[in-house]
Design goal:
Largest sheet: none
Structural class: mainly alpha
Order of helices and strands: HHHHHHHHHHHH
Radius of gyration: 19 Å
Distance between the termini: 14 Å
Strand content: under 5%
Helix content: over 70%
Number of strands: 0
């Protein structure tokens, strides 16, 4: 989990570093196009029937639509705002997942989780709403696009949890999203007039390989495999450190200099995410749960990707 959180925290920095050679939407399209063969190869190796009829086509295509628009917002937002701000705002997604789980799935939140949601909301409001010398309208627009991407990420998570996709193999559930996002991000690149004006250098190509092969093609599947094997609530408790890795990496690699206001906002967001993700007190559970009282589903499953 520490390795995965470090990988996800560095991803926004990878996007930023590749921007001089490859515009953001084209990065997203190339990333998805590169990850799809990886998923197909892994599915073939594991004997997963990716194209078998199982009643998931319609909801899978809709999940892919959400996924594509999500990353169109995220990649465009990263081009407008700083990487350190982007990684904090993107990881407000657990905030939306927790609220959506309470609203649509009937899952109850502990008092500490409500406190965490409040802290995260306060942190986002502070980072966006307080005037800062190095933040103009375009940066704020980028921030809002990242938050919008985080909310769509949460919507995708809730859709997967409440639809037939929850019974699909992880390769297939992720394959729908990756495949549908390719034309969406291609159209977004065309809409914004993105072109590659020079042959990408070795750094940009290596960063694209990192995003496509490692981040999308492998770490998402590793995460799904982990939550199938281990306690999801305990695993998700680690995820609050992902924004911290991102902010530190932005400072060390891109030399972003968070202002005191943004530093305080980041601390509020990270503290809130910790409270939301922190496992509750363990208690005895019946060996045979009553059908009228289904076992609680962790509201934060599958929320840590980027």
């Amino acid at each position: 989990m520490l390795m995965l959180c470090l990988s996800w925290g560095f991803n926004q920095i990878a996007v930023k570093l590749a921007l001089p050679d490859i515009p953001p939407m084209l990065q997203g399209m190339i990333r998805s196009a590169g990850a799809l063969p990886v998923l197909l190869l892994i599915a073939r190796f594991r004997g997963v029937k990716m194209f078998a009829a199982d009643g998931t086509l319609g909801v899978g295509l809709f999940a892919g639509l959400l996924f594509g628009v999500e990353f169109a917002l995220i990649f465009r937002g990263i081009a407008l705002t700083s990487a350190s701000r982007a990684v904090v705002f993107l990881y407000t997604a657990p905030f939306f997942v927790a609220l959506g789980s309470y609203q649509f799935l009937g899952e109850r939140l502990r008092a500490s989780q409500w406190s965490g949601l409040g802290l995260s909301f306060a942190g986002v409001a502070l980072a966006i709403g307080v005037p800062q010398a190095d933040v103009d309208a375009s940066v704020l627009l980028g921030d809002l696009m990242i938050v919008g991407g985080g909310s769509l990420w949460a919507a995708t998570t809730l859709l997967v949890k409440a639809s037939p996709l929850r019974r699909a193999p992880p390769e297939k559930a992720l394959g729908y999203q990756v495949a549908v996002s390719i034309p969406i991000l291609g159209l977004a690149a065309w809409f914004w007039g993105e072109t590659v004006t020079r042959v990408p250098g070795p750094l940009a190509l290596s960063l694209m390989a990192y995003q496509a092969l490692w981040v999308v093609g492998l770490t998402f599947l590793i995460w799904v495999g982990l939550i199938k094997t281990y306690s999801a609530s305990k695993l998700s408790a680690f995820t609050f450190i992902t924004p911290l890795f991102g902010v530190v990496a932005s400072y060390l690699i891109l030399h972003d200099t968070p202002t005191p206001v943004f530093g305080a906002a980041a601390i509020l967001v990270i503290a809130g995410l910790y409270l939301v993700n922190r496992p509750g007190p363990a208690g005895p559970s019946p060996i045979h749960p009553s059908p009228a009282t289904p076992a609680a589903i962790d509201p934060l499953l599958n929320v840590t990707k980027t």
